[in-house]
């Protein structure tokens, strides 16, 4: 019964953006729905980082509900008892609400994606195509189902670092897929075939960014942000003592080595130092790539966005160390990484569409037809 109640909560939340899309004066409601879903997914990723950074991931230690109910209101007695038994533990009423709000919003995103699937397949059956294969939104729906499974494992496996990191990467993959679909529904201002030769460089840039975000997720999920407390040195050394074997042993419990022992400070330093060092490579490459791409009119806006976000990411990353990991800056650092993914996806899409014979047409509005 409580699972049905959870579904109804997600549906009610999703009705707000669906109503907005429906009443908004726009010739292409499907495009607006996709863009709005993309924006809300970005918000969900940032709220997910807030959930993790406030140690609320186990605020409700079961899944999908909270102590077998649909709301912390109903589970008040169980939450209070758990908090009284362990006041410094992971369960409290505030943490329970943070965790459940994250789950509610995730279900609402799922409803919005289901709506997209219904729209594109209806358009296909009525022979009014949206200039996108219906299998693309269908694939996105399957992706969010996998993401939901990893969300469940995040809780049931007690925040195991590799599961939490994969949950983050799948969330970014979902954001990127929605961003590609949104770009597919948006006309490119200028068709510039000469820009197409930069596509391999942009793809490589996206790969570098994903690797760096995976390293950052590994830092965050292992709570290694403050393993190095100074900059540019790490604990007063360019190359401090490090234990890569334990630091990058993937299948292990939080705070433990693969052998079940307490993880050492040297292992946490290895995690932090690797993320920091690889960031230099990513920053230099992104600055070079964005500088080269901004010469093209169709790429100037996302390229300028990359330049701006790289500077912001450097500043927020440095602030996390100098200011001892303040919550707003840590969330902003996670959000900046997600926006960079979107910008790189947009650049890759526009470069791909710049190839001869690959011009993208605006989609027709089958929703209002």
UniProtKB/TrEMBL annotation:
GO cellular component: membrane
Location(s), subcellular: Membrane
Domain of life assignment: Bacteria
UniProt main location, coarse: membrane
GO molecular function: metal ion binding; oxidoreductase activity
Keywords carried by this UniProt record: Cell membrane, Disulfide bond, Heme biosynthesis, Iron, Membrane, Metal-binding, Oxidoreductase, Transmembrane, Transmembrane helix
Pathway per the UniProt entry: Porphyrin-containing compound metabolism
GO biological process: heme A biosynthetic process
Record keyword Membrane present: yes
Residue ranges crossing the lipid bilayer per the database entry: 6-23, 35-53, 104-123, 135-156, 162-183, 195-215, 270-290, 302-323, 329-349
Pfam families, alphabetized: COX15-CtaA
Membrane topology, record value: Multi-pass membrane protein
Designated name of the protein: Cytochrome oxidase assembly
